[in-house]
Design a protein that fits this description.
- The structure is a homodimer.
- By secondary structure, chain A is an alpha+beta fold.
- Chain A has 3 domains: about 10-95, Rossmann fold (3-Layer(aba) Sandwich); about 125-185, 2-Layer Sandwich (Dna Ligase, domain 1); about 190-355, ATP-grasp fold, B domain (D-amino Acid Aminotransferase, Chain A, domain 1).
- Helix content of chain A is about 30%, strand content about 30%.
- In chain A, a hairpin with a 4-residue loop joins strand 14 and strand 15 (about 265-270).
- The radius of gyration of chain A is 20 Å and the shape is globular.
- Chains A and B meet through helix 1, helix 11, strand 17 and strand 18 of A and helix 1, helix 11, strand 17 and strand 18 of B.
- Chains A, B: Belongs to the PurK/PurT family.
- Chains A, B: It catalyses: 5-amino-1-(5-phospho-beta-D-ribosyl)imidazole + hydrogencarbonate + ATP = 5-carboxyamino-1-(5-phospho-D-ribosyl)imidazole + ADP + phosphate + 2 H(+).
């Protein structure tokens, strides 16, 4: 446990996308400066960060400069090269810790970790070649889904297998990368819990949100989720168990499939999460400030929900709807991305639907 | 009426203090970049703005560069030199407009403007020398207060006159600047209305807040204010009358003295206002975003109040209380100022005291 950061300290953020942008804004509320490390120019976070260090993750001199210029390091994405982390961590503390990153960077490691905690996951099997895929399909069956162990997000690095005939194409889609075959879960709904853990070990979980995806990308999150009181409690306890097991500091996203009998962990993300954006308009302290508080060694803030909210992602041409949305009572959050591409997350809109129920 | 600014456009902000900082953050929510013009280094707004143009207000080449690099210009303080405004306005539109600035930069002009609208102000008289001060004291009496016509804020440029014996000292305190003698108003409370007007002329007023000052500096603002329904309506109508008369675009602060029989306008500020900081935790769209929406030619957002809030300014050594405040359910907003000075505004804290009543 280090001393809490004082106002005026600088928080280093790896990654300059919208999550880094909103983390920077939250850090500013607490009087912190931010320095963003991001190879891309004109990235969303650079618009609001005090510094943008534009360099590649294999530029170790730049990484050293970055680490020396900040008081603590955090990140907005989990796929940070291990060698870069080695350079950074030798100089400045990183939160959440390396174990959280190592666990969530690899689907196989993550599933084995979750099982070790006594949590439920979808049936899965390690796949390295045609033989192991065949064996996996024999045990798990179809429909199922083949996913690269590493570097997948927003539906990328995934191939659905409807029948054994799809096996070869699915394996080819992995481009030789180690993979995991996952059985489909017949779920009623998907929810996620955004949870935070401070350096003193205290935990605060936001109310679970209910997610709807479209084309593999999160489309809406709605709070409250349709859960029974016991499901709600269980969801929060699962998140807390993961946080404590990892000796985690910061905000973590846990995606859960809700079936008739169980809550099955789909995946964990060691960072602020798209399904927690509703907290910006539903809570006094949103997930971004909660994360900054944790990594800065501060106490967690008030994450209780004061409103019912629906968050909708704005991707690609959804930006054409912004002038109409601006006329409503909804709250827009745009990321300042210059280029609109199909499926690209351009912003989100939070609609408060009433006082919390 | 110009076209609404598109996401990715740049808003120029004159002044780099905490108001510019919070305006920059609000602009980022709507996908805008900001460029801050401010002579000081490491100013609060520079931490979150995309660009900081560090130059003096008499550097006309820098002003031109600034005006050419932004799509619209706004400001966080009213005491901008006229020559600078001439340079800027020849290149890029400024909101709120020059008339709003000219009116509020000069206490005498402002009072005459308000009287012209049929609004009540405290008794006042123009003071240029010892003779005019003597005449003014004869008509207004004591206690009264002598204020410089221009450049006063947070109690600066003011001298109280308890008896005619204080006249010479008060006049000397003006340093030869033109002044106004104001009679004391025996008020029950001071409230302020934060009001916004869009480019299409639509007006939205926040609920009035009740202000308590300490040593001439705002200490707390509480919503709801203790006002009768008719006082509440009158306060909002006064603000709307001022906005419309000035063909105003942006957010305006109107300070009112509440007496037994009247609402007396103390002063107007053509900008976001300290007494409107509670909106950050009391409304979906806060005063900063409302101002950005207006100057960007967007529709105004939802400024209805969802919570009761008390805002407390943190000045000087109040910063020592931050670790304690961080443990509570309150929302901190710190300005990242490196140097703590007595009376210097370092941040504020919003405490939600319940759902709106």
């Amino acid at each position: 446990m280090t001393e809490p950061l004082r106002t005026g300290a600088t928080i280093g953020i790896l990654g300059g996308g919208q999550l880094g942008r909103m983390l920077s804004v939250a850090a500013s509320r607490l009087g912190f400066k931010t320095c963003v490390f991001e190879p891309g120019s004109d990235c969303p976070a650079s618009h609001v960060a005090n510094f943008h260090l534009k360099a590649d993750y294999d530029d170790h001199a730049a990484l050293e400069r970055f680490a020396r210029s900040v008081d603590v390091i955090t990140y907005e994405f989990e796929n940070i090269p291990t060698a870069a982390l080695d350079v950074l961590e030798a100089i400045t503390p990183i939160h959440p810790n390396r174990r959280a990153l190592a666990t969530s960077q690899d689907r196989l490691t993550e599933k084995e970790f979750l099982i070790g905690l006594g949590l439920s996951v979808a049936p899965f099997a390690d796949v390295t070649d045609a033989d192991s895929l065949r064996a996996a399909l024999n045990s798990i069956g179809t429909p199922s889904i083949l996913k690269t162990r590493r570097m997948g997000y927003d539906g990328k690095g995934q191939a659905r297998i409807k029948s054994p005939d799809d096996a070869d194409a699915a394996l080819a889609a992995m481009n030789g990368a180690p993979a995991v075959l996952e059985g489909f879960v017949d779920f009623q709904r998907e929810v996620s819990v955004i949870a935070a853990r401070a350096q003193d070990g205290s935990v605060a979980c936001y109310d679970p949100g209910e997610n709807v995806h479209r084309d593999g990308i999160l489309h809406t999150t709605t709070v409250p989720a349709s859960l029974s009181p016991s499901q709600r409690t269980d969801a929060v306890l699962i998140a807390a168990r993961v946080l404590n097991a990892l000796d985690y500091v910061g905000v973590l996203g846990v995606e859960l499939f809700v079936t008739r009998n169980a809550l099955i962990v789909n995946e964990i993300a060691p960072r602020v999460h798209n399904s927690g954006h509703w907290t910006q308009n539903g809570c006094a302290i949103d997930q971004f400030e909660q994360h900054i508080r944790a990594v800065a060694g501060w106490p967690l803030g008030d994450g209780s929900r004061h409103s019912n909210v629906t968050m909708e992602n704005l991707t690609g041409d959804d930006m054409d709807r912004v002038p109409q949305i601006a006329k409503t009572d909804a709250s827009l959050h745009l990321y300042g991305k210059a280029e609109v591409k199909p499926g690209r997350k351009m912003g989100h809109v939070n609609t408060v639907t009433g006082a919390a129920t």
